[in-house]
Specification:
single chain, Transcription Regulator spoIIAA, five-stranded mixed beta sheet, 5 strands
Length: 116
């Protein structure tokens, strides 16, 4: 399955749904361009949903870190939710679970924003 994404503006945040496989940097160029534009606006909080995500390598990890960096540089935050087991293992192995706030679902992600 090819990489795809969609971004939906919600009340106070953007929902970023990643889908398919992310293994090459150029697959995410348009995503990162959109994130850049959105992070320049007031609402730079992102919920990154991986419920339809299948596979990523270091490129995918870099994309996640890029979203988080852009959000934080603009005073926002990014929370990852609905992480498949294989991807969660990758986040644990790379210790990125200590960098990202990882929660079960979108509702918990929104609550995480409210807690900060």
């Amino acid at each position: 399955m090819e990489f795809a994404y969609d971004i939906t503006e919600k009340q106070g945040y953007h929902l970023v749904r990643l889908k398919g496989n992310l293994i090459e940097k150029n697959q995410a160029n348009s995503l990162m361009d959109e994130i850049e534009g959105l992070s320049e606006k007031e609402n730079s909080r992102f919920v990154i949903s991986l419920d339809e995500f299948k596979y990523m390598n270091s490129t995918g990890l870099n994309v996640l870190l890029g979203i988080l960096s852009k959000a934080r540089r603009s005073g926002g935050e990014a929370v990852v939710c609905a992480v498949p087991e294989k991807t969660h293992s990758l986040l644990v192995i790379t210790k990125l679970v200590n960098v990202f706030q990882v929660v079960e679902n979108e509702d918990q992600a929104v609550k995480a924003f409210q807690a900060n």
